[in-house]
Design a protein that fits this description.
Layout: E1 3-7, H1 12-23, E2 28-32, H2 38-47, E3 55-58, E4 61-64, H3 66-76, H4 88-117, H5 124-145, H6 159-174, H7 182-193, H8 195-204
Parallel strand pairs: 1-2
Antiparallel strand pairs: 1-3, 3-4
Helix pairs in contact: 1-3, 1-6, 1-8, 4-5, 4-6
Length: 219
């Protein structure tokens, strides 16, 4: 059966699922969630009334949460690129780094965005300051954790790198990853050159003017 992914190309977590699909050239149909596709919205909410994307639809089976989608694809629709190692301890390292990027980089960045949009009871300048504080801590830790590695967990690209791609991409727009963090900066550049993520970046380029804090003139 055809796989369908519901989401938006500018959505960080949609991109995380897209990377997994692109890495293995897995056939699927992309169903964009937006005002131009009301039929997609209805079908999506019928399967997942919580109303967050991405959602993968495998036949009649909905799969939600980006990390779970990545794992599901490896179990049900495997390809040549394994994003979660077979070894249990190595897999645990990958899952930890996946969580680190989602919880300590992406979530920190979203504080600035949410306060700018008025989604949380915090002034936008206070939200930005808090995001900067949290991101500096994360950047400092990653600078040491990534030293001597090509990818997040060593020399093999994994689910941790799918999480890192989108979180570091948008975090850099909130607090630039400067030469103060040379290891992290170089790692982000390697992620941008990965064909699966480079494709996501290009597909979302049109939507950059809608970034609430103003998108900088750089990838």
């Amino acid at each position: 059966m055809t796989l369908a992914l519901y989401g938006h190309p500018f959505s960080s977590y949609t991109q995380k699922a897209l990377i997994a699909l692109y890495e293995n050239a897995t056939p699927f149909e992309f169903r964009e969630i937006g005002p131009d596709h009301p039929d997609h919205i209805g079908a999506w909410l019928e399967k997942w009334p919580i109303g967050k994307f991405p959602m993968l639809l495998d036949g009649d089976t909905p799969v939600v949460e980006a990390s779970i989608i990545v794992e599901y694809l490896q179990l049900k629709h495997p390809g040549p690129v394994r994003l979660i190692p077979e070894d249990p301890m190595a897999a645990l390292d990958v899952r930890f780094m996946d969580r680190f990027f989602d919880l300590h980089v992406m979530d920190a960045m979203q504080v600035a965005v949410a306060s700018k949009l008025g989604q949380i009871p915090m002034k936008s300048e206070d939200g930005l300051e808090l995001a900067h504080t949290r991101l500096r801590k994360a950047y400092d830790w990653l600078e040491g954790a990534l030293a001597g590695k090509t990818w997040a967990c060593g020399e093999v690209y994994s689910m941790a790198d799918t999480a890192a791609s989108m979180s570091l991409f948008y975090a850099d727009w909130v607090l630039e990853i400067t030469e103060d963090w040379p290891v992290l900066r170089a790692y982000r550049q390697r992620l941008l050159k990965r064909p699966s993520f480079a494709r996501c970046v290009e597909e979302a380029r049109y939507f950059r003017p809608f970034f609430p804090l103003g998108a900088p003139d750089r990838d």
